[in-house]
Amino acid sequence: MNNIFLITKREFLTQVKKKSFIILTLLAPLMIIAFGAVIGMMFKANESHISIQVVDNSGIFNNQLKSDDKIQYEFIPSAEEQSKLKTLKSNENLDGILILPALASNNFDDLEKNTRLVVNTKIGFDTKQRIVSDITNVIKKEKIKQLGIKETQLNDLDKNFSLKTINVSENNKEDSDLAHGIKSGLSMILMYVTFMFIIIYGVRVMRSVLEEKNNRVVEIIISSVKPFELMMGKILGVTMVALTQFIVWISMSVIGALILNTSFNSVQTNIPGGNDTPLSKLDVPQIATQISHGLLELNFPLIIFVFIVYFLLGYIFYSSVYAAIGSAVDNETETQQFTLFAILPLTLGMYGSFSILNNPDGPVGFWMSIIPFTSPVAMIARIPFGVPAWEIALSIALLLGTTIFMIFLAGKIYRVGILMYGNKATLKEIWKWIKN
């Protein structure tokens, strides 16, 4: 046990003393925020503003097609249609001409067949769909008007129904759309972080083992410690490195949420409708404040606890597999035939967890969060929505037992494979190592 502690300490200090680790740990959250901001700016910069002239031969679209910051509609007389079409190709201030034919005998099918948009540049799919939607809305209003329905009645027909959901299992707490969105977003973030870190740090353990094996350094090391102690020391050392990063990031996130939450009451006072106001009508600081308040309303101590426990057990479980793979092969090329066994179950758990967002308590979510191969990802995806205590306890017990068993198997493979050189390990040989 003392040797395991010493190796763990060495692996941990070797990583955390690096300047790159300190910089990445402190700057990673800011880099992620900056990355998201850059992506948002790229989408904003790529938005197009087009100018469309409209020839309305039907007489029903005039002043009905509304311009905005993306599409500018300009109605022109029918007599100018041909002259505008001739100069369209060389007109840099105009992107297209929308020609709407005359409406004969209220035949909207003929109107649709003969309507055409002539452009001098490529327009995006979203822009085309927006124009189609604008035309469709006008035709819809015209059809309803012919039925004798008034504008006020039409607006009343289009009014959305707001359903208030109260969860009796959460002390009659109202579950708003914003709260569901926050839970879904948090679920995906935690799921991806767990998946990526298990893969990244697991591969780091495998490469470390493979490097020491190829350099024959391991022959000197195991003269002082047992192979199992060396394997566990490496796994636990890298585990502590990842845990240190998580603690720093979680602390920064909670502090940031608390700071933003202090202005929540003033934001609610200044926003008509309070929590019912759509995020699209808020600015960035107000959105951040609403989200931070929603996060703090969750049982985040339980979420953090479950996240850390499942990450640690899941990481140790899969790192044992990676360590065994690293000891059984001689080069990174040979690892590809074995790493599939480690990646597939975890990938299944991640992509299968997308179904959990729509039905967290469904059979898929339940079994994926119980089966040890997928529970490190699936349970973390479910926890923001609330999970019964007995399911968490059962899942942890199964994952813990399976992790201990995997460490035992990996130790037997590591013990023999770490000293094997020149022989290409096969599944049959690995099975022999496990049985001996």
Overview features:
single chain, mainly alpha, four-stranded mixed β-sheet, two-stranded antiparallel ribbon, 6 strands
Spell out the blueprint of helices and strands.
Blueprint: H1 2-16, H2 19-45, E1 50-56, E2 71-76, H3 81-87, E3 96-100, H4 108-114, E4 116-119, H5 125-146, H6 151-157, E5 166-167, E6 173-174, H7 177-214, H8 217-221, H9 227-261, H10 264-270, H11 284-297, H12 300-328, H13 332-352, H14 363-370, H15 375-382, H16 389-417, H17 427-435
Helix pairs in contact: 1-9, 2-9, 7-9, 7-12, 7-13, 7-15, 9-11, 9-12, 9-16, 12-13, 12-15, 12-16, 13-15, 14-15, 16-17
Which radius of gyration do the C-alpha atoms yield?
31 Å
Number of continuous helical runs: 17
Low-pLDDT segments, ≥5 res: 264-276, 278-282
Largest sheet: 4 strands, mixed
The backbone outline, from C-alpha atoms, is elongated
Strand tally: 6
Strand order of the largest sheet: 2-1-3-4
The secondary-structure element order is HHEEHEHEHHEEHHHHHHHHHHH
Please tell me the overall pLDDT.
77
Task: Tell me roughly what share of residues is in helical segments.
Answer: 55-70%
